[in-house]
């Protein structure tokens, strides 16, 4: 079933010049399409909504600081099973545990700076798309 998902290339990915590499992996998947894309330094208020489920955890505040520390690439990706699919391309949260071949496994080392966010369910995707692309139909 065709779906849409919110993908963020986090500030570490942008600083390290990995936009092309990561967007390329997404574009290479058959029948997926990037339907919106912008380089943008994320507002704290948007990040607080985005990461509301993590409020109170020890990593929350440094995570928000990191995510606001420089530009991210904010994008909408649409296609067949794209929600599950981009999560699979990204790999598990901890880049050391993430398998080689995944984005986090190939490029990451520390948990906070794990390069990419992708919505984890259809409900999360709709919620997150509204935060970052309020005018997107
Ligand atoms: N123990 C931790 N220490 C430091 N940072 C963490 C830790 N756990 C999670 N994070 C950071 O918070 C983000 C959100 O955590 P979550 O558990 O939702 O992981 P995720 O769903 O794999 O990642 P994301 O929501 O960014 O796609 C992680 O991607 C990572 O950047
Ligand atoms: Mg998450």
UniProtKB/TrEMBL annotation:
The active site is at residue 117. ATP binds at residues 10, 59, 87, 93, 104, 114. It is found in: Cytoplasm. Residues 2-136 form the Nucleoside diphosphate kinase-like domain. It is an enzyme of class 2 (transferase). One of its GO terms (molecular function) is metal ion binding. Its EC number is 2.7.4.6. It comes from the Bacteria. Keywords: ATP-binding, Cytoplasm, Kinase, Magnesium, Metal-binding, Nucleotide metabolism, Nucleotide-binding, Phosphoprotein, Transferase. Its cofactor is Mg(2+). It holds the Pfam family NDK. One of its GO terms (biological process) is UTP biosynthetic process. It catalyses: a ribonucleoside 5'-diphosphate + ATP = a ribonucleoside 5'-triphosphate + ADP; a 2'-deoxyribonucleoside 5'-diphosphate + ATP = a 2'-deoxyribonucleoside 5'-triphosphate + ADP. GO terms for cellular component: cytoplasm. Major role in the synthesis of nucleoside triphosphates other than ATP. The ATP gamma phosphate is transferred to the NDP beta phosphate via a ping-pong mechanism, using a phosphorylated active-site intermediate. Belongs to the NDK family. NCBIfam families: PRK00668.1 (NF001908). Homotetramer. This is Nucleoside diphosphate kinase. It comes from Streptomyces nanshensis. The gene is ndk.
